[in-house]
TrEMBL record:
GO terms for biological process: purine nucleoside catabolic process. It comes from the Bacteria. Gene3D superfamilies: Ribonucleoside hydrolase-like. SUPFAM superfamilies: Nucleoside hydrolase. The keyword Hydrolase applies. This is Inosine/uridine-preferring nucleoside hydrolase. The lineage of its organism: Bacteria, Pseudomonadati, Pseudomonadota, Betaproteobacteria, Burkholderiales.
């Protein structure tokens, strides 16, 4: 989740999958690394696009086994996100290892009249795809700065079905990095509830626990966009951890970090050039770091300098309370999560930015061990 900037940040949602999970015989170092699926409202080089670039670099280093990158409407409409995701796969040079899986184009439940009323009541709110007309054909899409994908195609399997099959193939091994509205994962759980005890964990970027929202006054975009999907997952026994607005509000993108990425001593890459365009002026607009915090926390939980745990619920009612997270520190209440969920409240910013800059300025295409 990240607001657009005047510089023209193109947002989108992506789903990708490592071809190796379908039975490839390659022996890359990442095969034995921790397994993840990224479920994303993908964009070219906003936070979702950055997360994908970072994760594929980590994949090349043998530190992560990216089993899939799934796309869902959130930041933008699905058709735009698919186009951005397909190009990202080619940009990173992983089209032979990562596929793109399309997911949900709409939330599980939504009320357009209520959404429009919330937009009117919160003129500075960020409402993602609902702020733009929905494209229906290729000619209505905005090309990434380095053009559309030239050969990579969507996989035929739907994102939810891909998740079900992959989780069953690797029981108790797959972490879902959930950085968009969790419609795809909730759909998978509803369709195949037997996968619930087989999911290792979910790591979200989403929610506003004890701070104001960035969509309506109380809701963070990812969880506001499909609160029914969020509640469906909160009510399961899947281990879940959250990077909420409470911590992302404290991790600003500074001019120094921006300059380190767009002017690397090793020279520009396709990633640094796209980053420069997508994030131009971002540091002047009080832009924070969002989805990319998840991959640092997943790899090393000590990136979280402070955490809290509570039973969580979310308001699913259309209106000004939509997306409001209910936090119960001491005891569960009816409808809330059956176990306490950990959420991060303070991050190791300096250590993270070293990690962030290093991965975003690494050679492109990705070099595999």
């Amino acid at each position: 989740m990240t607001p657009r900037h005047a510089a023209g940040l193109v947002t989108a949602v992506v789903v990708g999958v490592v071809a190796g999970c379908g039975g490839s015989d390659h022996t890359d170092a990442y095969n034995n690394a921790p397994k993840v699926i990224i479920d994303s409202d993908f964009n070219t080089m906003g936070d979702d696009g950055q997360l994908f670039a970072m994760t594929t670099q980590l994949m090349g280093q043998g530190k992560v086994n990216l089993l899939g990158l799934c796309v869902v409407t959130g930041n933008d409409w699905l058709l735009q996100e698919q186009a951005d995701a397909l190009k990202a796969v080619e940009r990173m040079g992983v089209q032979d290892k990562v596929g793109v899986y399309a997911g949900a184009n709409y939330p599980l439940q939504y009320d357009v009249a209520s959404i429009r009323a919330q937009q009117a009541a919160n003129p500075n709110g960020y409402f993602g795809a609902w702020m733009r007309p929905e494209p229906t054909q290729q000619s209505q899409l905005t090309a990434p700065p380095d053009g559309f994908a030239t050969s990579t195609q969507l996989k035929s399997q739907a994102a939810a079905d891909f998740m079900i099959d992959t989780i069953k193939r690797y029981p108790n091994q797959v972490t879902i990095i959930e950085v968009g509205p969790p419609t795809n994962l909730a759909t998978a759980v509803q369709k195949a509830p037997e996968i619930v005890p087989l999911i290792k964990q979910i790591v979200y970027m989403g929610g506003a626990m004890n701070v104001p929202g960035n969509a309506n006054a109380v809701g963070e975009l990812n969880w506001w966009f499909d609160p029914v999907a969020v509640r469906t997952l909160l009510q399961t026994t899947i281990p879940q951890k959250v990077i909420p607005l409470d911590v992302t509000n404290t991790v600003p993108l500074t001019e120094s970090v921006y300059n380190q990425i767009v002017n690397p001593p090793t020279g520009p890459t396709a990633v640094t050039q796209a980053y420069a365009i997508a994030n131009a002026g971002a540091f002047a607009n009080n832009t924070n770091i969002y989805d990319t915090l998840t991959i640092g926390y997943f790899l090393d939980p000590t990136y979280a300098k402070e955490t809290q745990s509570a039973y969580l619920d979310i308001d699913t009612t259309p209106g000004e309370d939509q997306g409001h997270v209910r936090v119960y520190p001491d005891a569960p209440v009816a409808g809330a999560s059956p176990q306490k969920i950990t959420y991060v409240t303070r991050y190791d910013n300096d250590r993270f930015f070293s990690f962030y800059v290093n991965l975003l300025t690494s050679p492109v295409p990705v070099k595999f061990q």
